[in-house]
Amino acid sequence: MIGFDFPLKPQWIHDVHVLWRPQQPVRELVQAALAQTMQELGGEKARRNTLTVILHYFVATEGSGQARRTMAQDAWAAYAQAHPAATLAPAYLAHIITENEVAHEASRFLTTRHSPGETVTAGELRRHVASRFGERKVALNAASAFLRTLDYFGALSPAGRPSEYRFVSRLPVVQPAFPLLVWAWWQRHLSPQVDLDAFAEDSAMAFLEADRFGVYWQSFQPALWVLETRLEGRRAALKQVTEASWIEALLAVT
Question: Which of 167, 192, 222 is a domain's end point?
Answer without folding.
Answer: 167
